[in-house]
Amino acid sequence: MIADAAPHGHAKAGRWPHLRLRWGLVVVVALGAPALVTLLALTSVRTVVPGLLYVVAIILATAVGGRVGGLIAVVASAFPFFYFFASRYDRNELNAEGATALIVFVVAALFGSEVLGRERAARERAELAVRQSASALDAAARLQYVADALSTAHTPQEVLDAVLTEGVRAAEARGGLIATVSDDGEWLEVIASRGYDMKYIEPFLRFPVNGNFPLSEAVRTGEGVFIGSEAERDARYPELIGRSQPGHGLVCVPLVGERGTIGGLVFSFPTDQEFSPERRALKIALGRQAALALERARFSAAERTLRERLSFLGEATALLTSSLELDRTLERLTELAVPLLADWCTISMLVEETGEIEQVVVAHQDPERKRWAEEMREGSRTIRIDDEFDLTARVVRTAEPVFLREIPQELLDEAVRRDPNAAQALKEISLRSAITVPLVSGERTFGALTLVSETRELQDSEFELAQELAARAAIAVENARLYREAERRAEAALALAHVGDGVVLLDRDGRVRFWNSAAAAITGIPEGDAVGRHPAEVVPKWEELTRPAELADAAAPERARPVTVPIETASGDRWVAVTGVAFDEGVVYALRDVSDEEALERARSDFVATASHELRTPLAAVYGAARTLRRTDIEIPEEQRDRFLEIIVSETERLTAIVSQILLAGQLEEGRVDVTPSATDLAPLAESVLESARLRAPDEIELRLERSRDRAVALADEDKLRQVLVNLLDNAIKYSPDGGDVTVELNGGQGRVRLAVRDRGLGIPPGEQERIFEKFYRLDPALTRGVGGSGLGLFISRELVSRMGGSLTVRSQPGEGAAFVVDLPAA
Ligand code: ADP
What we know:
Radius of gyration: 64 Å
Bound molecules: adenosine-5'-diphosphate
Mean pLDDT: 84
Number of strands: 25
Low-confidence stretches: 1-15
Distance between the termini: 125 Å
Strand content: 15-25%
Largest sheet: 6 strands, antiparallel
Number of helices: 24
Structural class: alpha+beta
Strand order of the largest sheet: 3-2-1-6-5-4
């Protein structure tokens, strides 16, 4: 197939004139020299000089023409010699003297020419030997030259250049090419050429090893194919007639490396050639050297690829482990893969809830193309995991990687048929080769990584690399997912840790896994004591606490109904509302301390009871008095009538007071009470309140005012302060059932004015001294000997005082009385 375009030459014909010239010269010298001597003898008187000159002529002819020249000269000299010397005295008869002289002459001439001839032959042999060794040296030097050039070649391309540049020169060729055997051993693929017209090369870039082509034959047989001329080539390889570049001498040698024949080398010559065994050997040696160099270069390329691959994987691993931000990491990973591995790299993920496969990242070297691809993606049809046609769906479904070395045209046609978008995309880009590998974590395939090459065929090594890359990417995705999950849990735990309700998580074995600070506060058991143990071990009545709580199902946790139960804690009895939700991994309980609400509720119902009782008593008295007064059947004395009217008035006042207390408490809570402080002298105020109290107080109680000398003028709302003092004095009287002194003390000084109401009554236990100021709160009737009240007086009093910028506090020893102290800013 490979031939040469140079014009025909005439190297063989060129040697003939040279030969003819030489033999012409021999004949001229062998005949001419004796003839000249004869001419000299005819003109000379003395014949001895020409006689000797004949010998010189014979030696000369031998020197020029060898033995043959010498013999011709001997023959040409013999007759004149005989004529002039042997028959000198008798020209017609051979005398003995003459005959002897002739014989001596002929023998001497033959001997001389033989000696000369031998010497000449020896010289020619020596010259030939020198010439041969010079050409051997030249061949060796050329081979050495090629070897030197090859030794610096590291890539297959450099090897080709060295072989084709230096090798072509060494072989005296004008063009050359190298083809390698394909992986399957079926094809020869041209990997470099020099000095050819590409239009002839192109149809033969790939041709079968089994074909009837000279290089195929050389590769098949492992022997060189040497073709002297185009005619010989056409005769031996008729398939090449008209299909290849016209040419002359052609050599095809196999490239035999360490591991057998790896390809073939072609040299083309500008003229017809004869290939001597030496030249053949030289070409074979060149092929051998090229093969070894090519193998070495391939090896070093493979080694370099391996190194690049390792460093790529190293880089990818570092990248993937450096960040837990999944989307960014995947994007950078795909950017790493292009253009090193392929033109396009995409990562798709399976959305498990919907069964859809979403392309999450696409990368291309050119940002424009990348943007285009992202826009295309927006408009593309949704791929579902059960899509029979889509490659990514198949890979995610089967977890098997797919390698399409050459994407079949039918596949592209089908894609176009299914999706008009694909048709548009394929107008923009060509797809040659593709690899899709699954992203697998444990048993789960959650996505796929795809590499696409537009023009180049992807290689097995890239398929392997893609799989390794996918394995690493899968780990990174999994890590990021776990991290996100952990973060979410940590956040949830953080929220639960700080939530106001107690949260207790029990595992399937009923051991505490989580115990937040509210749970610790409610139960009084610190987290450290509870976690890892059964709650019943640490909370005394846990079973009683949780048994009534009906466990709701995890599917509908909102159905959980709280159950309120009392528990004993280190800080006293508490009321706790408990809800429980059971789920796969255990039970979660929520505990809410409802002691306050519970107490309020209790106080409210107490109030209703008390208030109705309190209201009913005066009402009953009013009702009784009124009914009696209305009676006509009996005569009511005037004195008694007044008494009944008195009862009606005073009980009605009491009713009004209770009702207005309730109203005032409500107004205070709503912030609707106006307090307008002004300078108020407390002494006359206290006097007047004491005055009216004395009217109500039983006889066993003595009411007194004690005051220091200081001025006691406070910044206060007089009416409201009066109300406070009335309340405090009423209480002091009420809760002193056994009588005793009730004193109102007044003190001034240091910007403050103090008013205290002291009694010697029942007193208040220390644990209750704050709570008596709460709305509706009343001490246990057992402690107050059944004294009635609304539980609002102290609440109202403290609220009013604090609105004046003052404070109301209590000091008391149970059984020894109580002192309620009002501190007010001085005016
Ligand atoms: P009440 O109308 O029940 O008296 P208060 O708010 O005035 O309501 O008082 C709240 C509770 O404080 C009372 O029920 C009583 O038990 C207690 N208390 C108030 N004053 C005294 C006092 N001087 N001595 C003993 N206990 C008192």
